């Protein structure tokens, strides 16, 4: 197994205090590299798909998608199209008062243990009362045409009783896949899957595997 595919979970904020995700600074860097070559045949292209917010977002119990919207708008993992909710949602906490900030990185191509991989990460950070447990699913997707994206790899943190959840995912560039477009999806959940917010990478990566 490649070394950097791992679960990241640790507390970053004091109780009741919202702090912007430190990784949000990467969004500005991602925007600056849009439409530029990353080396070899890898090129960043600004995200255009209208299905999800780009780069980052915030959600609360008042404006997040509930279980029903999650099932219809974001199919379960194992679907060939999108990443989404898994399992039955827990009971919603009455009078919950919280906000969660979510971030998804751009995909990148790197070499790990001699293999070319497409890598991405996503995170969420929550504050307030009633958001826990939280969960993040990071997914690497490949564009298949006509608006459809196929899941290539994913990593699920599972439910975490904390204010932060984040995970890395990677997919080994398979020989003969040719020049393809990739994006990273972060599916984030609060109140034990009762509320959900998905975000796509700010930029897509067009790359030939292997190159």
TrEMBL record:
Stated name of the protein: Secreted protein
Organism (species): Actinocrinis puniceicyclus
Keywords: Signal
Cleaved signal peptide residues: 1-31
Superkingdom of origin organism: Bacteria
């Amino acid at each position: 197994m490649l070394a950097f595919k791992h679960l990241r979970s640790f507390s970053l904020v004091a109780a009741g205090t919202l702090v912007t995700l430190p990784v949000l600074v990467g969004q500005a860097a991602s925007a600056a590299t849009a439409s530029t070559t990353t080396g070899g045949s890898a090129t960043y292209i600004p995200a255009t798909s209208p299905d999800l917010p780009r780069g980052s977002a915030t959600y609360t119990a008042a404006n997040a998608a509930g279980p029903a919207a999650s099932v219809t708008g974001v199919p379960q993992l194992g679907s060939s199209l999108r990443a989404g909710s898994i399992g039955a949602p827990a009971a919603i906490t009455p009078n919950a008062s919280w906000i969660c900030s979510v971030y998804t990185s751009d995909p990148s191509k790197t070499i790990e243990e001699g293999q070319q991989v497409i890598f991405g990460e996503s995170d969420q950070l929550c504050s307030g009362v009633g958001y826990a447990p939280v969960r993040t699913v990071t997914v690497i997707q490949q564009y298949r045409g006509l608006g459809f994206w196929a899941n290539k790899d994913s990593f699920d943190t599972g439910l975490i009783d904390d204010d932060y959840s984040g995970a890395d995912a990677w997919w080994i560039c398979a020989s003969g896949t040719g020049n393809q477009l990739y994006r990273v999806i972060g599916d984030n959940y609060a109140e034990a899957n009762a509320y959900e917010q998905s975000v796509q990478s700010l930029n897509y990566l067009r790359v030939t595997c292997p190159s």
